[in-house]
Amino acid sequence: MAEMFSTLGTWNWLIFGFILMALELAAPGVFLFWLGLAALLVGLLSFAITPSWQTQLLMFAVFAAAAVPAWRHFARSATAASQSNPFLNRRNQALIGREFTLEKPIIDGAGTVRIDDTVWRIAGPDTPAGSRVKVIRADGASLTVVVA
Asked: What is the spatial distance between Cα 148 and Cα 138, in angstroms, rounded to a whole number?
């Protein structure tokens, strides 16, 4: 067993790192990526210095353990970035509470309104064209309005 570890070299670590990263592509979970990165770091450091196999294993353990807080930091910052735009992929929810002018009247409880470059279906009380309406509910691609 000791002989197996004593043959560890730079190329072994680089190959091991690439294998772990390839496995991450096959089964995503962001866990193997960090272990692969730790193995690549050991391999790259082994080019510069020639550590013993014990030192190489210790470096791998330290890099792998340091990867956990690094992963949490990156995951937390990515989550914060996605929360900076809470209506991303929920555009209709951003319309609730806004007021718009009807281009066409609402007849028999149904009509349309142009918001920016999109025509939305609306439901609400019969209202003549030119009236201001306020969005009170969004359900899919349909909005419910009341006279503002």
From this structure: 16
Residue 38 has pLDDT above 70, yes or no: yes
- 133: DSSP letter: E
Contacts of 9 (CB under 8 A, 6+ apart): 46
Pairing of strands 118-123, 142-147: parallel
Residues 146, 64: Cα–Cα separation, whole Å: 58
Could you tell me which residues are beta bridge partners of residue 113?
Answer: 120
Query: Would you list the DSSP string of 82-116?
Result: HHTSTTTT-GGGGGTT-EEE-SS-BBTTEEEEEET
Least confident of 81-90, 110-119, 125-134: 81-90
Say which residues have a Cβ less than 8 Å from residue 16's Cβ, sequence separation at least 6: 36, 39, 43
List, in sequence order, every beta strand (DSSP E) within the chain: 99-101, 110-115, 118-123, 132-139, 142-147
Which pTM was predicted?
A: 0.51
The rounded distance, in Å, linking the Cα atoms of 42 and 115 is 56
Nearest to 135, CA basis, from 125, 127, 146, 126: 146
